[in-house]
Amino acid sequence: MIGITGANGFIGRAVLRRIGENPCVGHVGPIEGEAGAIDICDQPALEALFSGIDTIVHLAGPSSVAASFDAPAAFARAHVLGTATLLAAAERIGVQHFVYVSSAEVYGRVDPAYVSESAPLLPLSPYGAAKAAAEQLVSGAVRRGALRSAVIVRPFSVYGPGMGANGLVGRLAALAYLRQPMRVFSADTTRDYVHVDDLARGLLMAAARDEPGALTLNLASGTGTDVAALAATFARISGGPDTLIVEEQGDRSRALDIAHLVADVSLARETLGWRAEIALADGVRDCLGDMA
Question: pTM of the entire structure?
Answer without folding.
Answer: 0.94
